[in-house]
Design goal:
The chain has one domain: Indigoidine synthase fold (3-Layer(aba) Sandwich), CATH 3.40.1790.10. The chain has 13 helices and eleven strands. The chain has helices spanning 7-14, 25-30, 35-49, 70-79, 88-96, 105-115, 132-135, 140-144, 163-172, 204-216, 237-254, 261-272, 276-300; strands spanning 3-5, 19-22, 53-60, 63-66, 84-86, 101-103, 119-121, 151-154, 177-180, 199-201, 223-226. The strands form two sheets. The chain has a nine-stranded mixed beta sheet with strand order 1-4-3-2-7-8-11-9-10, sandwiched between helices. The structure holds pseudouridine-5'-monophosphate and manganese (II) ion (MN).
Length: 301
């Protein structure tokens, strides 16, 4: 096993108990301190409250780890952008150099699959960026969906991305996108995007059934569970759209590219909305953790 499991995660997997993987880029690069640490710990508690064991995934001193201590989460939160954002491309580098790394959806999925953890909750997945025809900026999260047998619970994808092109790419790659109690692909801060999902499920048991069927058939890769933000916490699309457009303009103006794009946009949007986007972000991650725990319980039953 290439992954170091915490004693709790190790015992849970050995006993075939439900486990939910969680990412660490959201801690180090997705939110500011101390909200990032508070959220990471609260999300772990939500997973526990719904009958599963949380396994926050990161690279620590070059070791791939599933299940972090409170001190380790605090370290990632405090160090923030001082810790490298690690996608699949970067795993060999941080491992070889014995560095710490905050894992993106792609890298977290890969490590979860190595560890045998089939369910993963995030906030929002990466996707095809607006203007990708020019920039070629397509998140490695999408590539990973064809590789790792993990169900990813996500609040759709943020409207900083080109959502129609993201869905096109997933269709091409043969990745099922299942609307969870919705027929629409959610747009992270907003419940609706106007885009249809190709399929829906109305219970954790249905999702677990799709996961089993997919992998029993030898169909490699992810099942995306698109779970909308709770109504009470959503920001209507027409309110958030100008904020996103302005943030995208700033990226262009400052020449930000590569892996810096997503963290920059998140921080800009949080600044402009004076924390409202952060509040929505926290609410949707918790909601995803709850649904992921329920799916993990159903999958293990
Ligand atoms: N979307 C969010 N919050 C996040 C991210 C995406 O709403 O924190 C992070 C995730 O870790 C995701 C990564 O995997 O950004 C995608 O980065 P990129 O676009 O550089 O692939
Ligand atoms: Mn990118």
């Amino acid at each position: 096993m290439n992954v170091i499991l915490s004693p709790e995660v190790s015992a849970a997997l050995a006993a075939r108990q439900p486990v939910v993987a969680l990412e660490s880029t959201i801690i180090a690069h997705g939110m500011a301190y101390p909200a990032n640490v508070e959220t990471a710990l609260a999300v772990e508690q939500v997973v526990r409250d719904h009958g599963a064991i949380p396994a926050t995934i990161a690279v620590i001193g070059g070791k791939l780890q599933a299940g972090l201590t409170g001190e380790e989460i605090e370290h990632f939160g405090q160090a923030g952008p001082g810790i490298m954002k690690v996608s699949v491309r970067d795993l060999a580098f941080v491992a070889g150099r014995r560095l710490d790394g905050a894992t993106t959806v792609a890298a977290t999925m890969r490590i979860a699959a190595m560890a045998g953890i089939p369910v993963f909750a995030t906030g929002g997945m990466g996707g095809v960026h607006r203007g990708a025809g020019e920039t070629f900026d397509v998140s490695a999260d999408l590539t990973e969906m064809t590789h790792s047998n993990v169900a990813l619970v996500t609040a759709g994808a943020k409207a900083i991305l080109d959502l129609p092109l993201t869905l096109e790419r997933l269709e091409t790659d043969g990745v099922p996108v299942v609307g969870y109690r919705t027929g629409e692909f959610p747009a992270f801060y907003s419940r609706s995007s106007g885009l249809k999902v190709p399929m829906r499920a109305d219970s954790a048991q249905e999702v677990a059934g799709i996961m089993r069927s997919k992998w029993e058939l030898g169909l490699t890769g992810a099942v995306i569970v698109a779970n909308p933000i709770p109504e009470a916490d959503e920001i209507p699309a027409e309110q958030i759209e100008p904020v996103i457009a302005a943030a995208l303009g700033e990226t262009k103006r400052l020449g930000i590219c590569g892996k810096d794009v997503t963290p920059f946009l998140l921080a800009e949007i949080a600044k402009t909305t004076k924390g409202r986007s952060l509040q929505a972000n926290i609410a949707l991650v918790k909601n995803n953790a709850k649904v992921a725990a329920e799916i993990a319980v159903a999958y293990m039953a």
